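Worked Example 4.2. Read the sequence first, then its C-alpha coordinates.
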Amino acid sequence: MADYDNSLEKLYLPSRWSQRFPPDLIVEKHTTLACQESEKARRLIPHELNIPYGPLHKEKIDIFGTDLSDDAPLFVFVHGGYWQEQTLTRDTYHFIATNLHKRGAKSMFIGYELCPSVPLTKIIEEAEVATKKCIDYARKHNSKGVYLTGYSAGSHLVASLYTDLVKELSCEDRGVVTAAILIAGIYDLHEIPKTSVNGPLKLDAEEADKLSPYRREIAGGVKTSFYVVSAENDSPEFRKQSREFHEKLVSLGVKSTLVVCEDVDHFDVVERLTDEDFQLTKLILDLVKQ
Protein backbone atom coordinates (compact mmCIF):
# COMPACT_ATOMS: atom_id res chain seq x y z
CA MET A 1 0.00 0.00 0.00
CA ALA A 2 1.36 3.44 -0.93
CA ASP A 3 2.48 5.76 1.84
CA TYR A 4 0.61 9.07 1.55
CA ASP A 5 1.12 12.36 3.36
CA ASN A 6 -1.81 12.35 5.81
CA SER A 7 -2.23 16.13 5.87
CA LEU A 8 -2.29 16.33 2.07
CA GLU A 9 -4.55 13.29 1.85
CA LYS A 10 -7.11 14.91 4.15
CA LEU A 11 -7.23 18.10 2.06
CA TYR A 12 -8.29 16.12 -1.02
CA LEU A 13 -10.96 14.04 0.74
CA PRO A 14 -14.07 16.21 1.31
CA SER A 15 -15.63 13.44 3.40
CA ARG A 16 -13.10 14.29 6.14
CA TRP A 17 -14.49 17.81 6.55
CA SER A 18 -18.23 17.31 7.02
CA GLN A 19 -19.55 18.36 10.41
CA ARG A 20 -22.73 16.29 9.93
CA PHE A 21 -21.45 12.70 9.64
CA PRO A 22 -18.14 10.86 10.10
CA PRO A 23 -16.04 10.23 6.97
CA ASP A 24 -17.04 6.59 6.67
CA LEU A 25 -20.76 7.51 6.61
CA ILE A 26 -21.08 10.79 4.71
CA VAL A 27 -20.82 9.39 1.15
CA GLU A 28 -23.27 6.59 1.97
CA LYS A 29 -25.74 9.08 3.48
CA HIS A 30 -25.32 11.38 0.47
CA THR A 31 -25.89 8.58 -2.02
CA THR A 32 -28.94 7.22 -0.18
CA LEU A 33 -30.63 10.61 0.07
CA ALA A 34 -29.86 11.54 -3.54
CA CYS A 35 -31.10 8.20 -4.87
CA GLN A 36 -34.35 8.40 -2.88
CA GLU A 37 -35.09 11.92 -4.11
CA SER A 38 -34.14 10.98 -7.67
CA GLU A 39 -36.54 8.04 -7.64
CA LYS A 40 -39.33 10.49 -6.75
CA ALA A 41 -38.29 12.73 -9.65
CA ARG A 42 -38.45 9.81 -12.07
CA ARG A 43 -41.97 9.00 -10.88
CA LEU A 44 -43.25 12.57 -11.18
CA ILE A 45 -41.49 14.20 -14.14
CA PRO A 46 -41.88 13.07 -17.79
CA HIS A 47 -38.46 12.06 -19.06
CA GLU A 48 -36.43 10.10 -21.57
CA LEU A 49 -33.49 8.01 -20.34
CA ASN A 50 -30.37 6.51 -21.92
CA ILE A 51 -30.00 8.71 -24.98
CA PRO A 52 -26.64 7.60 -26.42
CA TYR A 53 -23.91 10.03 -27.44
CA GLY A 54 -21.29 7.30 -27.95
CA PRO A 55 -20.89 3.50 -28.08
CA LEU A 56 -19.75 2.86 -24.49
CA HIS A 57 -22.10 1.76 -21.70
CA LYS A 58 -22.12 4.98 -19.65
CA GLU A 59 -22.06 7.34 -22.66
CA LYS A 60 -25.69 8.29 -22.16
CA ILE A 61 -27.77 11.40 -21.49
CA ASP A 62 -31.08 11.58 -19.59
CA ILE A 63 -33.54 14.41 -20.21
CA PHE A 64 -36.27 15.51 -17.80
CA GLY A 65 -39.17 17.78 -18.68
CA THR A 66 -40.08 16.26 -22.03
CA ASP A 67 -43.60 17.61 -21.49
CA LEU A 68 -42.38 21.23 -21.54
CA SER A 69 -42.32 23.56 -24.54
CA ASP A 70 -39.56 23.02 -27.11
CA ASP A 71 -37.90 26.33 -26.27
CA ALA A 72 -37.78 25.76 -22.50
CA PRO A 73 -34.46 26.70 -20.84
CA LEU A 74 -32.05 23.77 -20.61
CA PHE A 75 -30.10 22.89 -17.45
CA VAL A 76 -27.23 20.45 -18.13
CA PHE A 77 -25.63 18.58 -15.21
CA VAL A 78 -22.29 16.74 -15.04
CA HIS A 79 -21.93 14.59 -11.90
CA GLY A 80 -18.89 14.12 -9.68
CA GLY A 81 -17.28 11.21 -7.84
CA TYR A 82 -13.57 11.89 -8.49
CA TRP A 83 -13.95 10.37 -12.00
CA GLN A 84 -14.03 6.91 -10.36
CA GLU A 85 -16.84 6.45 -7.81
CA GLN A 86 -19.15 3.72 -9.15
CA THR A 87 -22.07 4.59 -6.84
CA LEU A 88 -22.33 8.18 -8.08
CA THR A 89 -23.72 8.37 -11.61
CA ARG A 90 -25.96 10.64 -13.66
CA ASP A 91 -29.15 9.01 -12.30
CA THR A 92 -28.05 9.67 -8.71
CA TYR A 93 -28.74 13.36 -9.33
CA HIS A 94 -32.05 13.31 -11.22
CA PHE A 95 -33.62 14.95 -8.15
CA ILE A 96 -32.14 18.28 -9.26
CA ALA A 97 -34.74 18.34 -12.05
CA THR A 98 -37.64 18.69 -9.59
CA ASN A 99 -37.51 22.42 -8.82
CA LEU A 100 -36.32 23.24 -12.33
CA HIS A 101 -39.32 21.45 -13.85
CA LYS A 102 -41.68 23.44 -11.61
CA ARG A 103 -40.17 26.60 -13.13
CA GLY A 104 -40.53 25.39 -16.71
CA ALA A 105 -36.92 24.31 -17.33
CA LYS A 106 -35.73 21.02 -18.82
CA SER A 107 -32.78 19.15 -17.30
CA MET A 108 -30.19 16.95 -19.00
CA PHE A 109 -27.85 14.65 -17.07
CA ILE A 110 -24.60 13.53 -18.68
CA GLY A 111 -23.07 10.14 -17.92
CA TYR A 112 -19.50 9.12 -18.65
CA GLU A 113 -17.14 6.16 -18.23
CA LEU A 114 -15.01 6.00 -15.09
CA CYS A 115 -11.38 5.39 -14.24
CA PRO A 116 -9.64 2.95 -14.37
CA SER A 117 -11.79 1.56 -17.22
CA VAL A 118 -10.79 4.62 -19.26
CA PRO A 119 -8.17 7.34 -18.63
CA LEU A 120 -9.14 10.84 -17.52
CA THR A 121 -8.26 12.16 -20.99
CA LYS A 122 -11.04 9.97 -22.40
CA ILE A 123 -13.54 11.30 -19.83
CA ILE A 124 -12.75 14.88 -20.87
CA GLU A 125 -13.38 13.88 -24.49
CA GLU A 126 -16.70 12.31 -23.47
CA ALA A 127 -17.73 15.52 -21.67
CA GLU A 128 -16.96 17.44 -24.85
CA VAL A 129 -18.97 15.13 -27.12
CA ALA A 130 -21.93 14.98 -24.70
CA THR A 131 -21.98 18.76 -24.23
CA LYS A 132 -21.93 19.24 -28.01
CA LYS A 133 -24.97 16.95 -28.24
CA CYS A 134 -26.79 19.02 -25.58
CA ILE A 135 -25.90 22.24 -27.41
CA ASP A 136 -27.16 20.79 -30.70
CA TYR A 137 -30.42 19.86 -28.93
CA ALA A 138 -30.72 23.44 -27.62
CA ARG A 139 -30.14 24.86 -31.10
CA LYS A 140 -32.66 22.50 -32.70
CA HIS A 141 -35.33 23.39 -30.13
CA ASN A 142 -34.49 27.12 -29.87
CA SER A 143 -33.92 26.77 -26.12
CA LYS A 144 -34.15 30.08 -24.27
CA GLY A 145 -30.85 29.40 -22.52
CA VAL A 146 -28.35 26.67 -21.67
CA TYR A 147 -27.03 26.41 -18.10
CA LEU A 148 -24.05 24.05 -17.94
CA THR A 149 -23.42 22.80 -14.41
CA GLY A 150 -20.73 20.61 -12.90
CA TYR A 151 -20.50 19.25 -9.38
CA SER A 152 -17.19 18.26 -7.73
CA ALA A 153 -15.18 16.38 -10.39
CA GLY A 154 -17.95 17.33 -12.82
CA SER A 155 -16.92 20.97 -12.32
CA HIS A 156 -13.42 20.01 -13.48
CA LEU A 157 -14.95 18.54 -16.65
CA VAL A 158 -17.10 21.62 -17.32
CA ALA A 159 -14.15 23.96 -16.67
CA SER A 160 -12.02 21.86 -19.05
CA LEU A 161 -14.50 22.59 -21.85
CA TYR A 162 -13.40 26.23 -21.70
CA THR A 163 -9.67 25.48 -22.01
CA ASP A 164 -7.27 24.48 -24.76
CA LEU A 165 -7.68 20.85 -23.64
CA VAL A 166 -10.77 20.75 -25.87
CA LYS A 167 -10.39 20.87 -29.64
CA GLU A 168 -13.83 20.30 -31.17
CA LEU A 169 -16.07 22.65 -29.18
CA SER A 170 -16.15 25.88 -31.19
CA CYS A 171 -16.46 29.45 -29.93
CA GLU A 172 -19.97 29.42 -31.42
CA ASP A 173 -20.82 26.26 -29.48
CA ARG A 174 -19.64 27.76 -26.21
CA GLY A 175 -21.56 30.92 -27.04
CA VAL A 176 -24.82 28.97 -26.79
CA VAL A 177 -24.11 28.37 -23.08
CA THR A 178 -25.64 31.23 -21.09
CA ALA A 179 -24.01 30.34 -17.77
CA ALA A 180 -21.60 27.79 -16.35
CA ILE A 181 -22.21 26.87 -12.71
CA LEU A 182 -19.27 25.11 -11.04
CA ILE A 183 -20.23 23.58 -7.69
CA ALA A 184 -17.55 22.54 -5.14
CA GLY A 185 -15.08 21.83 -7.91
CA ILE A 186 -11.44 20.86 -8.28
CA TYR A 187 -9.44 22.69 -10.95
CA ASP A 188 -5.77 22.02 -10.13
CA LEU A 189 -4.73 18.33 -10.05
CA HIS A 190 -1.05 19.00 -9.28
CA GLU A 191 -1.09 17.22 -5.90
CA ILE A 192 -3.45 14.39 -6.86
CA PRO A 193 -0.64 11.91 -7.75
CA LYS A 194 0.53 12.18 -4.12
CA THR A 195 -2.86 11.01 -2.77
CA SER A 196 -4.89 7.79 -2.70
CA VAL A 197 -7.36 9.43 -5.10
CA ASN A 198 -4.82 8.74 -7.84
CA GLY A 199 -5.07 4.94 -7.55
CA PRO A 200 -7.62 4.47 -10.36
CA LEU A 201 -6.53 7.66 -12.18
CA LYS A 202 -2.89 6.65 -12.60
CA LEU A 203 -1.77 10.22 -13.30
CA ASP A 204 1.88 11.16 -13.24
CA ALA A 205 2.94 14.70 -12.29
CA GLU A 206 3.12 15.90 -15.90
CA GLU A 207 -0.35 14.54 -16.77
CA ALA A 208 -1.88 15.98 -13.59
CA ASP A 209 -0.68 19.45 -14.53
CA LYS A 210 -1.70 19.02 -18.18
CA LEU A 211 -5.27 18.07 -17.19
CA SER A 212 -5.71 20.95 -14.72
CA PRO A 213 -8.03 23.71 -16.03
CA TYR A 214 -6.36 26.13 -13.61
CA ARG A 215 -3.03 25.57 -15.40
CA ARG A 216 -4.42 25.73 -18.97
CA GLU A 217 -5.14 28.55 -21.36
CA ILE A 218 -8.78 29.68 -21.27
CA ALA A 219 -10.43 29.80 -24.70
CA GLY A 220 -10.69 33.27 -26.19
CA GLY A 221 -13.94 35.14 -26.67
CA VAL A 222 -15.83 33.40 -23.85
CA LYS A 223 -19.28 35.00 -23.43
CA THR A 224 -20.57 32.53 -20.86
CA SER A 225 -21.11 33.91 -17.34
CA PHE A 226 -19.44 31.76 -14.68
CA TYR A 227 -20.68 31.12 -11.16
CA VAL A 228 -17.97 29.42 -9.12
CA VAL A 229 -19.66 27.93 -6.07
CA SER A 230 -17.85 27.04 -2.86
CA ALA A 231 -19.28 25.33 0.24
CA GLU A 232 -18.40 26.95 3.58
CA ASN A 233 -17.73 23.59 5.30
CA ASP A 234 -15.85 21.96 2.41
CA SER A 235 -12.17 21.07 2.51
CA PRO A 236 -9.95 24.18 2.66
CA GLU A 237 -8.25 22.97 -0.54
CA PHE A 238 -11.52 22.84 -2.47
CA ARG A 239 -12.48 26.28 -1.17
CA LYS A 240 -9.08 27.67 -2.15
CA GLN A 241 -9.28 26.17 -5.63
CA SER A 242 -12.72 27.71 -6.20
CA ARG A 243 -11.44 31.13 -5.20
CA GLU A 244 -8.30 30.84 -7.32
CA PHE A 245 -10.12 29.59 -10.42
CA HIS A 246 -12.62 32.43 -10.10
CA GLU A 247 -9.73 34.89 -9.82
CA LYS A 248 -8.08 33.38 -12.92
CA LEU A 249 -11.29 33.82 -14.93
CA VAL A 250 -11.70 37.43 -13.81
CA SER A 251 -8.06 38.22 -14.61
CA LEU A 252 -8.67 36.99 -18.16
CA GLY A 253 -11.74 39.17 -18.63
CA VAL A 254 -14.27 36.36 -18.19
CA LYS A 255 -17.41 37.31 -16.27
CA SER A 256 -17.29 35.29 -13.06
CA THR A 257 -19.03 35.45 -9.68
CA LEU A 258 -17.72 33.62 -6.61
CA VAL A 259 -20.60 32.25 -4.54
CA VAL A 260 -19.95 30.94 -1.03
CA CYS A 261 -22.83 28.84 0.29
CA GLU A 262 -23.00 29.07 4.07
CA ASP A 263 -23.53 26.21 6.54
CA VAL A 264 -23.14 23.43 3.95
CA ASP A 265 -20.40 20.93 3.16
CA HIS A 266 -19.23 19.27 -0.05
CA PHE A 267 -22.28 17.01 -0.09
CA ASP A 268 -25.29 18.96 1.12
CA VAL A 269 -24.36 21.90 -1.11
CA VAL A 270 -25.95 19.83 -3.88
CA GLU A 271 -28.40 17.81 -1.74
CA ARG A 272 -30.13 21.04 -0.75
CA LEU A 273 -31.08 21.79 -4.33
CA THR A 274 -34.33 20.08 -3.26
CA ASP A 275 -34.98 23.17 -1.11
CA GLU A 276 -36.44 26.11 -3.06
CA ASP A 277 -35.27 28.53 -0.36
CA PHE A 278 -31.64 27.37 -0.40
CA GLN A 279 -29.16 30.01 -1.61
CA LEU A 280 -27.87 27.98 -4.58
CA THR A 281 -31.34 26.79 -5.63
CA LYS A 282 -32.54 30.38 -5.74
CA LEU A 283 -29.52 31.41 -7.81
CA ILE A 284 -30.11 28.66 -10.37
CA LEU A 285 -33.86 29.25 -10.58
CA ASP A 286 -33.29 33.01 -11.01
CA LEU A 287 -30.83 32.32 -13.83
CA VAL A 288 -33.14 30.05 -15.78
CA LYS A 289 -36.05 32.48 -15.26
CA GLN A 290 -34.00 35.21 -16.94
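Now turn to a second chain, presented in exactly the same format:
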Amino acid sequence: MAATSVVVLDRGNNTTCTINLHGATVVSWRVNNQEQLFVSKQAVFDGKKAIRGGIPFVFPQFGPWNFGPQHGFARIVRWNLEKPPERLASGDIEAIFSLIDSDFTRAVWSYPFQLTYRLILREKELHSNIAVYNPSKESTFSFNLLLHTYFKVPDVRRCQITGLQGCTYLDKTSNEGALYQETRDVVTIGEWTDRIYQNTPHEHIITNVVSGRKMRIQKCNFPDTVIWNPWVEHAKEMNDFGDDEYPNMVCVESGHVSSPVILLPGMGFEASQILQVM
Protein backbone atom coordinates (compact mmCIF):
# COMPACT_ATOMS: atom_id res chain seq x y z
CA MET A 1 0.00 0.00 0.00
CA ALA A 2 1.92 3.02 -1.25
CA ALA A 3 1.91 6.01 1.12
CA THR A 4 0.43 8.21 -1.60
CA SER A 5 -2.70 6.06 -1.63
CA VAL A 6 -3.68 7.00 1.94
CA VAL A 7 -5.11 10.25 3.31
CA VAL A 8 -5.16 10.91 7.06
CA LEU A 9 -7.45 13.34 8.88
CA ASP A 10 -5.87 14.13 12.26
CA ARG A 11 -7.88 16.12 14.79
CA GLY A 12 -5.36 15.79 17.60
CA ASN A 13 -5.88 13.88 20.87
CA ASN A 14 -5.24 10.62 18.97
CA THR A 15 -8.44 11.08 16.98
CA THR A 16 -7.85 10.25 13.34
CA CYS A 17 -9.53 8.97 10.21
CA THR A 18 -7.62 7.20 7.44
CA ILE A 19 -8.95 6.92 3.88
CA ASN A 20 -7.45 4.67 1.23
CA LEU A 21 -7.95 6.27 -2.20
CA HIS A 22 -8.71 2.77 -3.52
CA GLY A 23 -12.48 3.01 -3.30
CA ALA A 24 -12.21 6.09 -1.06
CA THR A 25 -12.47 3.42 1.65
CA VAL A 26 -12.30 4.66 5.22
CA VAL A 27 -9.92 2.05 6.68
CA SER A 28 -9.52 3.46 10.18
CA TRP A 29 -11.41 5.75 12.55
CA ARG A 30 -9.79 6.19 15.93
CA VAL A 31 -11.34 8.16 18.79
CA ASN A 32 -8.87 8.81 21.63
CA ASN A 33 -6.69 6.14 20.00
CA GLN A 34 -9.48 3.52 20.07
CA GLU A 35 -10.22 1.95 16.70
CA GLN A 36 -13.95 1.96 15.91
CA LEU A 37 -13.92 0.13 12.58
CA PHE A 38 -13.19 -3.50 11.76
CA VAL A 39 -10.74 -4.36 8.98
CA SER A 40 -9.96 -8.02 8.44
CA LYS A 41 -6.39 -9.11 9.12
CA GLN A 42 -6.64 -10.85 5.74
CA ALA A 43 -7.91 -7.80 3.83
CA VAL A 44 -6.17 -7.39 0.46
CA PHE A 45 -4.62 -4.02 -0.43
CA ASP A 46 -3.68 -4.70 -4.04
CA GLY A 47 -5.47 -1.76 -5.64
CA LYS A 48 -7.84 -4.18 -7.38
CA LYS A 49 -9.94 -6.07 -4.85
CA ALA A 50 -12.42 -4.28 -2.55
CA ILE A 51 -10.96 -3.73 0.93
CA ARG A 52 -12.55 -6.11 3.46
CA GLY A 53 -13.62 -3.77 6.23
CA GLY A 54 -13.79 -0.13 7.20
CA ILE A 55 -16.40 1.72 5.16
CA PRO A 56 -16.54 0.50 1.55
CA PHE A 57 -18.50 2.84 -0.77
CA VAL A 58 -21.19 0.93 -2.69
CA PHE A 59 -22.28 2.53 -6.04
CA PRO A 60 -24.05 2.21 -8.49
CA GLN A 61 -25.18 -1.34 -7.61
CA PHE A 62 -25.87 -3.12 -4.34
CA GLY A 63 -25.31 -6.88 -4.41
CA PRO A 64 -24.62 -9.04 -7.47
CA TRP A 65 -24.54 -7.17 -10.77
CA ASN A 66 -25.09 -8.63 -14.23
CA PHE A 67 -22.97 -5.91 -15.85
CA GLY A 68 -20.03 -5.59 -13.50
CA PRO A 69 -18.50 -6.27 -10.09
CA GLN A 70 -20.63 -7.06 -7.04
CA HIS A 71 -21.59 -3.88 -5.16
CA GLY A 72 -20.58 -1.76 -8.16
CA PHE A 73 -17.27 -0.19 -9.12
CA ALA A 74 -16.90 2.76 -6.71
CA ARG A 75 -15.21 0.60 -4.06
CA ILE A 76 -12.60 -0.82 -6.47
CA VAL A 77 -11.44 2.26 -8.39
CA ARG A 78 -9.03 4.97 -7.30
CA TRP A 79 -10.72 8.20 -6.24
CA ASN A 80 -9.38 11.71 -6.51
CA LEU A 81 -8.49 13.79 -3.46
CA GLU A 82 -10.51 16.90 -4.33
CA LYS A 83 -9.62 18.84 -1.18
CA PRO A 84 -6.81 17.73 1.17
CA PRO A 85 -7.52 17.58 4.92
CA GLU A 86 -8.08 21.04 6.32
CA ARG A 87 -8.86 22.25 9.82
CA LEU A 88 -12.16 24.12 10.05
CA ALA A 89 -12.84 27.00 12.45
CA SER A 90 -14.56 24.47 14.74
CA GLY A 91 -11.31 22.50 15.04
CA ASP A 92 -12.81 19.66 13.01
CA ILE A 93 -10.97 18.25 9.99
CA GLU A 94 -12.53 18.09 6.53
CA ALA A 95 -11.44 16.36 3.33
CA ILE A 96 -13.30 15.91 0.03
CA PHE A 97 -12.96 13.02 -2.43
CA SER A 98 -14.42 12.75 -5.91
CA LEU A 99 -15.02 10.23 -8.66
CA ILE A 100 -16.16 10.77 -12.25
CA ASP A 101 -16.87 8.33 -15.06
CA SER A 102 -13.89 6.84 -16.88
CA ASP A 103 -13.24 4.29 -19.61
CA PHE A 104 -13.31 1.63 -16.89
CA THR A 105 -16.69 2.67 -15.44
CA ARG A 106 -18.28 3.31 -18.86
CA ALA A 107 -17.31 -0.20 -19.98
CA VAL A 108 -19.73 -1.62 -17.38
CA TRP A 109 -22.11 1.33 -16.89
CA SER A 110 -22.37 3.72 -19.80
CA TYR A 111 -23.43 6.88 -17.94
CA PRO A 112 -21.55 10.06 -17.11
CA PHE A 113 -21.68 10.85 -13.38
CA GLN A 114 -19.97 12.87 -10.67
CA LEU A 115 -19.62 11.65 -7.09
CA THR A 116 -18.48 13.87 -4.24
CA TYR A 117 -17.68 12.39 -0.83
CA ARG A 118 -17.06 14.83 2.01
CA LEU A 119 -15.74 13.56 5.33
CA ILE A 120 -15.59 15.60 8.51
CA LEU A 121 -13.80 14.27 11.59
CA ARG A 122 -15.15 15.71 14.82
CA GLU A 123 -14.17 14.97 18.42
CA LYS A 124 -16.31 11.85 18.71
CA GLU A 125 -18.07 11.85 15.35
CA LEU A 126 -17.42 10.98 11.73
CA HIS A 127 -19.65 12.80 9.22
CA SER A 128 -20.06 11.51 5.66
CA ASN A 129 -21.81 13.64 3.04
CA ILE A 130 -22.37 12.21 -0.43
CA ALA A 131 -23.53 14.00 -3.57
CA VAL A 132 -24.33 12.23 -6.85
CA TYR A 133 -24.74 14.41 -9.94
CA ASN A 134 -25.93 13.53 -13.44
CA PRO A 135 -24.10 15.88 -15.85
CA SER A 136 -25.81 14.42 -18.93
CA LYS A 137 -28.08 16.53 -21.15
CA GLU A 138 -30.22 13.59 -22.25
CA SER A 139 -29.75 10.37 -20.27
CA THR A 140 -31.43 9.46 -16.99
CA PHE A 141 -29.76 6.88 -14.78
CA SER A 142 -30.76 4.91 -11.70
CA PHE A 143 -28.46 3.68 -8.96
CA ASN A 144 -28.08 2.18 -5.49
CA LEU A 145 -25.92 3.87 -2.87
CA LEU A 146 -24.73 2.44 0.44
CA LEU A 147 -22.03 2.89 3.07
CA HIS A 148 -21.00 -0.67 3.97
CA THR A 149 -19.72 0.15 7.48
CA TYR A 150 -17.94 -2.60 9.43
CA PHE A 151 -18.06 -1.78 13.14
CA LYS A 152 -15.48 -3.30 15.46
CA VAL A 153 -17.03 -5.06 18.47
CA PRO A 154 -15.63 -7.26 21.27
CA ASP A 155 -18.41 -9.86 20.85
CA VAL A 156 -21.20 -9.43 18.31
CA ARG A 157 -23.45 -11.74 20.37
CA ARG A 158 -23.61 -9.05 23.05
CA CYS A 159 -24.57 -6.20 20.72
CA GLN A 160 -28.08 -4.82 20.46
CA ILE A 161 -29.24 -2.68 17.54
CA THR A 162 -32.14 -0.29 18.08
CA GLY A 163 -34.60 1.37 15.73
CA LEU A 164 -35.73 -1.63 13.68
CA GLN A 165 -38.91 -2.74 15.47
CA GLY A 166 -41.90 -2.74 13.13
CA CYS A 167 -39.76 -2.41 10.00
CA THR A 168 -40.19 -4.72 7.04
CA TYR A 169 -37.06 -6.61 6.03
CA LEU A 170 -35.85 -8.82 3.22
CA ASP A 171 -34.05 -11.86 4.61
CA LYS A 172 -31.27 -12.74 2.17
CA THR A 173 -30.35 -15.89 4.12
CA SER A 174 -33.58 -17.56 2.99
CA ASN A 175 -33.76 -18.66 -0.64
CA GLU A 176 -37.21 -17.31 -1.38
CA GLY A 177 -36.18 -13.79 -0.35
CA ALA A 178 -39.41 -13.33 1.60
CA LEU A 179 -40.37 -10.10 3.37
CA TYR A 180 -40.81 -10.23 7.14
CA GLN A 181 -41.64 -7.75 9.88
CA GLU A 182 -39.24 -7.18 12.77
CA THR A 183 -41.02 -7.65 16.09
CA ARG A 184 -38.05 -7.24 18.44
CA ASP A 185 -37.41 -3.89 20.12
CA VAL A 186 -33.67 -4.56 19.76
CA VAL A 187 -32.05 -6.77 17.13
CA THR A 188 -29.38 -9.21 18.27
CA ILE A 189 -27.11 -11.43 16.18
CA GLY A 190 -26.40 -15.06 16.95
CA GLU A 191 -26.21 -16.61 13.49
CA TRP A 192 -25.58 -15.80 9.83
CA THR A 193 -27.48 -12.55 9.26
CA ASP A 194 -28.07 -10.70 5.98
CA ARG A 195 -31.10 -8.44 6.05
CA ILE A 196 -32.27 -5.34 4.24
CA TYR A 197 -34.53 -3.38 6.58
CA GLN A 198 -36.75 -0.96 4.67
CA ASN A 199 -37.97 2.54 5.56
CA THR A 200 -35.91 2.57 8.72
CA PRO A 201 -35.83 5.55 11.10
CA HIS A 202 -33.07 8.16 10.95
CA GLU A 203 -31.23 6.77 13.96
CA HIS A 204 -29.89 3.46 15.26
CA ILE A 205 -27.81 2.74 18.33
CA ILE A 206 -25.47 -0.27 18.58
CA THR A 207 -24.65 -1.26 22.16
CA ASN A 208 -21.47 -2.95 23.40
CA VAL A 209 -19.12 -1.72 20.70
CA VAL A 210 -15.47 -0.95 21.53
CA SER A 211 -14.88 -0.67 25.32
CA GLY A 212 -18.54 -1.45 25.98
CA ARG A 213 -19.64 1.92 24.60
CA LYS A 214 -22.53 2.76 22.30
CA MET A 215 -22.37 3.84 18.67
CA ARG A 216 -25.06 6.13 17.30
CA ILE A 217 -25.79 6.08 13.57
CA GLN A 218 -27.77 9.00 12.15
CA LYS A 219 -28.66 9.04 8.47
CA CYS A 220 -30.43 11.20 5.95
CA ASN A 221 -31.80 10.11 2.54
CA PHE A 222 -30.75 6.55 3.29
CA PRO A 223 -34.13 4.77 3.71
CA ASP A 224 -32.63 1.28 4.16
CA THR A 225 -30.47 -0.30 6.84
CA VAL A 226 -28.58 -3.50 6.02
CA ILE A 227 -27.45 -5.77 8.86
CA TRP A 228 -24.79 -8.36 7.98
CA ASN A 229 -22.58 -10.87 9.74
CA PRO A 230 -21.27 -13.91 7.82
CA TRP A 231 -21.01 -16.14 10.93
CA VAL A 232 -18.74 -19.13 10.96
CA GLU A 233 -19.88 -20.99 7.85
CA HIS A 234 -19.71 -17.99 5.50
CA ALA A 235 -16.55 -16.57 7.07
CA LYS A 236 -14.80 -19.72 5.86
CA GLU A 237 -15.91 -19.05 2.28
CA MET A 238 -14.11 -15.67 2.10
CA ASN A 239 -10.37 -15.78 1.49
CA ASP A 240 -9.96 -12.15 2.63
CA PHE A 241 -11.75 -12.73 5.96
CA GLY A 242 -10.40 -14.80 8.87
CA ASP A 243 -12.41 -17.86 9.88
CA ASP A 244 -12.54 -16.66 13.48
CA GLU A 245 -13.09 -12.92 12.92
CA TYR A 246 -16.90 -12.87 12.68
CA PRO A 247 -17.52 -12.31 16.45
CA ASN A 248 -15.51 -9.07 16.26
CA MET A 249 -17.54 -7.23 13.63
CA VAL A 250 -21.03 -6.22 12.65
CA CYS A 251 -22.06 -4.42 9.49
CA VAL A 252 -24.82 -1.85 9.98
CA GLU A 253 -25.08 -0.19 6.59
CA SER A 254 -26.96 2.98 5.63
CA GLY A 255 -28.23 2.71 2.08
CA HIS A 256 -30.70 3.42 -0.68
CA VAL A 257 -30.99 -0.10 -2.05
CA SER A 258 -34.55 -1.54 -1.87
CA SER A 259 -35.51 0.82 -4.64
CA PRO A 260 -33.06 2.73 -6.83
CA VAL A 261 -32.56 6.47 -6.95
CA ILE A 262 -33.59 7.77 -10.39
CA LEU A 263 -31.57 10.79 -11.46
CA LEU A 264 -32.76 12.92 -14.36
CA PRO A 265 -30.32 14.88 -16.57
CA GLY A 266 -28.75 17.80 -14.71
CA MET A 267 -30.09 16.65 -11.35
CA GLY A 268 -28.33 15.73 -8.13
CA PHE A 269 -28.95 13.58 -5.07
CA GLU A 270 -27.49 13.94 -1.59
CA ALA A 271 -27.33 11.61 1.39
CA SER A 272 -25.43 11.70 4.67
CA GLN A 273 -24.46 9.69 7.73
CA ILE A 274 -23.11 10.66 11.15
CA LEU A 275 -21.37 8.09 13.34
CA GLN A 276 -21.03 9.09 16.99
CA VAL A 277 -19.24 7.33 19.85
CA MET A 278 -21.42 7.79 22.92
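Notes for the reader: Helices lie at 103-108, 231-235. The longest strand covers residues 249-263.
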